[in-house]
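Dear colleague,

Thank you for sharing your sequence with our group. We've completed the structure prediction you requested, and as agreed, I am returning the results in plain text so they can be pasted directly into your records. Please verify that the sequence below matches your submission; if there's any discrepancy, let me know and we will rerun it promptly.
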Amino acid sequence: MRLMATPSDLELANRLADAAGEAIRPLFRGEWSEEQKADRSFVTEADKAAEAAMRAILEAERADDGIIGEEYGTRNEGARRQWVLDPIDGTTSFIAGRPIFGTLIGLLQDGFPVLGIIDQPIARERWAGRMSEGTTFNGKPVRTAPCRELSDAVLGTTSPHHFSDHEADHFMGLAKAVAERKIIYGGDCYNYGLVASGHVDIVCEAGLKLHDFAALAPIVEGAGGLMCDWAGEPLHAESDGTVLAIGDPARLEDVLEAMGHD
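Please find the predicted structure tokens below.
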């Protein structure tokens, strides 16, 4: 079967994002409960409410599809089509009242991403991408930016604390190759939307889980960019959690060389 997502899949994904946003907005900078998970990350009332709202729609309308959710686990694990949900990517930003977190909605077919949504429900900003189709930002087409030299690039990562010592060495190799004053920290999924819109050139991260990156590849690639792991391989359900988003695919070899990868 050809890997693809249909217009009806995109319409459904947009409704999932709408439902998540309705659950999140009343709680932002308000009163809500939180708890710490086993991996020491935090989950809030808003995370749970948003995922529950999305799962309810999927369970009613796509009973045969699988669901992989950050907060409520997996349903129909063996399904060829899997919806991957991260209700709030960037929970720390949500807790801190910073509107640069996002709801991530991805669709995998046979383990490969074919559709993605990044929705920032406070600013009401939404990137949507579908394999073999262009990426849109609030319904209008967007494109990544050309980058002639790494020294011209804007580089983003969520936090250097997320890297192991070995991973940090690779990241610092890349950081030394770009302009020092063009490195940004923080942003989680929001940075990948900025790559798609041509404002950021490279995002480099490690330790990501499937729900962190499944939605991102169709968005960045639909806008003309490239997403891969640190070995330059396409992202899929079994990827190792190292992630590169590169707005100008011509810079891939330069990025890998700077990071110390062949």
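Summary note from our side: The first helix runs from residue 7 to 24.

Kind regards,
the structure core
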